[in-house]
Amino acid sequence: MDIKKYFIKRTTITNKALKVFIKALQDVPPILQKSMLYSLSAGGKRLRPVLLTATYEIFGGKKEDVLPAACSIEMIHTYSLIHDDLPSLDNDDLRRGKPTNHKVFGEALAVLAGDALLTNAFTVLGHNAETGKIKEKNVLDCVRILAKYAGAGGMVGGQAADLGAEGFLQGKKLSLRSNKKLFNAANDLLNYIHLHKTAGLISASVEMGAVLASASPKDFKHLSNYARSIGLAFQIVDDVLDVIGDKKKLGKKGSDARNKKLTYVSLFGIEESNSHAARLIAEAHDELDKVSGSVKAKTVLHEIADFIVKRDK
Amino acid sequence: MDIKKYFIKRTTITNKALKVFIKALQDVPPILQKSMLYSLSAGGKRLRPVLLTATYEIFGGKKEDVLPAACSIEMIHTYSLIHDDLPSLDNDDLRRGKPTNHKVFGEALAVLAGDALLTNAFTVLGHNAETGKIKEKNVLDCVRILAKYAGAGGMVGGQAADLGAEGFLQGKKLSLRSNKKLFNAANDLLNYIHLHKTAGLISASVEMGAVLASASPKDFKHLSNYARSIGLAFQIVDDVLDVIGDKKKLGKKGSDARNKKLTYVSLFGIEESNSHAARLIAEAHDELDKVSGSVKAKTVLHEIADFIVKRDK
Question: Nearest CB to B118: which of A89, A118, A123?
Fold first, then answer.
């Protein structure tokens, strides 16, 4: 299969659904709706919705049954980018080649647009109980999963740890490899950040897809392991691309080095980062093989794992 | 009954539960947990949890059954205060007599602590399905209600409209009473702001209490009307207190006048504001009388309605 074509096709469906869900929210001030749609429409691969629908489809369901849940994760992802770009956090002017939300709408409205996307992600997720295909219990479980991976012990926790890691390497770079205690502390912190900041929502996507399909506990576990591995690999590749990637393709300046951030590359170098990502993807394939269902049904998730290390943006 | 004593008793229970729920979140960076607890522990009447539990109790349930839902609303309320105080929004240094979150933890962590409280409010709400007393369907309905009243078409929408209203009166004050069109526009905008920014979460509290108790559609409607009336009255009294209140009691400077905000007082004056609040409270009592159940069971909600116009902070 051509995974790039698959992504383009799925992205179109997700984009359309996202617009419908946002416009269905009643009583929203026009400027706030505009700001929400601006960041939601800024492009991107829609990796998380694709992972959720593809996981659900392994078990025989149709993607249309779980579009609300798929869109809810993309709304959470988008809010996190808006807040992450704020002057008080990463202070980024560009995102996917376009001015960031606060550059266009001002800081106050960017904070609120992020808050609204985060809150109404749960409205949209709730719609999934109205498709008639999904049990209410499963939707409520998805609320729990989404809040867990997006909240204080998940993505937001990762962001908070990342703040503390800012400047971690300042003046310590030389002693890092000779000072084992410092290296271990850096490694622990880095693992926490990677696992929570990025891998969290990827885990949520796959776990929600599995729960919506009423997957068995065994299948759920292997899919959850798969997600954790590709999520970590995704962040490692992100760190590498921030250093070596084509700035034009990435649509942003490499801000990690500028901020002296603790990243996989700054700790292990590019070569070891790439091999670690490859090891994680191999693990992901193994986990996927243990999930019940035909090889064909799992093709997309296999292809996505490979795509994550091969992407150039 | 002594409503003040009642509030103190209930506040103690809510405060304890809030701490338990926050500490039960796993894998949270200590500084983030500290920042969340700082704002949650900053005092306040816990009006929203009290409204939720008192509404639930009308129908014979025990408050312990719905403490998770009650705490989830307080978490949403607290996050909104943290973000509202940010330099890019209201830029307030004090809240309830204590330095605001960003003054203590910095702006970046304040944004994240707000995001975490908002997200994990849904984790805590999810716990309400684990008390064994509440149907999963009812908890899922609460997720919908909370997201609706807190999101883009609710509280966040009210905040966004409030941003647009900032400076609305600048240079227009004199012509406001002679220019009918301008006056009507101001009145419409003000109504939107009041109904969404403050009344929304008060509506959510009462409606969630009713849904958790499986109230009949008729009772739900009257309770919802009650909530809307006391919510509007609450914001009007807030506007009045911002002008005439004892700064020490309020624990904050009156920032509305400083920011030339559109408020009930700036539009109608103090006297008409007070009579409108009183009219709304009378309506609230009428609606409450139409709710089934003994007069005694509804005493607390009657007392809260009166308390809202009599409070001095």
Answer: A118
Pairing label, strands A98-99, B98-99:
unpaired
Q: Tell me the ipTM for this assembly.
A: 0.94
Contacts of B115 in chain A (CB under 8 A): 79, 83, 114-115, 118, 156
Distances in Å between the Cα of A94 and the Cα atoms of A83, A313, B122 are 13, 14, 31
A16 in B contact zone (CB under 8 Å) = no
- In the prediction, which pLDDT does B256 show? 57
Chain B environment of A139 (Cβ under 8 Å): 140
Lookup result for tokens 């807040």:
A83
Determine how many CB atoms are found less than 10 A away from the CB of residue B177.
Answer: 10
Residue B152, chain A, CB below 8 Å: the answer is yes
A137 and B136: CB-CB below 8 Å?
yes
A130-155 pLDDT, tens digit per residue, is: 988 999 999 999 999 999 999 999 99
Q: What domain range is A237 assigned to?
A: 3-310
Query: What integer pLDDT is reported at residue A1 of this predicted model?
Result: 85
CATH code for the domain in which residue A67 is found? 1.10.600.10
SS3 content of chain A, % helix, strand, coil (to 5): 75, 0, 25
Residue B109 and residue A160: Cβ atoms within 8 Å? yes
Question: What residues of chain A, 60 to 79, have a C-beta less than 8 Å from chain B?
Answer: 79
Q: What is the rounded CA–CA span in Å between residue B66 and residue B63? A: 6
- Is A108 an 8 Å CB contact of chain B? yes
The structural domain count of chain B equals 1
Shortest CA distance to A293 belongs to which of A61, A70, A88, A21?
A61
- DSSP letters, B61-119, are --GGGGHHHHHHHHHHHHHHHHHHHSTTTT--SEETTEE-HHHHH-HHHHHHHHHHHHH
Q: Which residues contact A46 (CB under 8 A, 6 or more apart)?
A: A7, A10, A11, A14, A15, A74
Q: Using alpha carbons only, how large is chain B's radius of gyration in Å?
A: 19
Return the residue in A77, A81, A88, A89 with the most chain B beta carbons within 10 A, the one to mutate for interface testing.
A88
Whole-angstrom Cα distance, residue B121 to residue B124? 5
Q: Which residue of A has its CA nearest to B124?
A: A144
Average pLDDT over residues A56-74: 96
* Distance from the B36 Cα atom to the nearest Cα atom in chain A, whole angstroms: 9
CA dist B37 and B82 (Å) reads 12
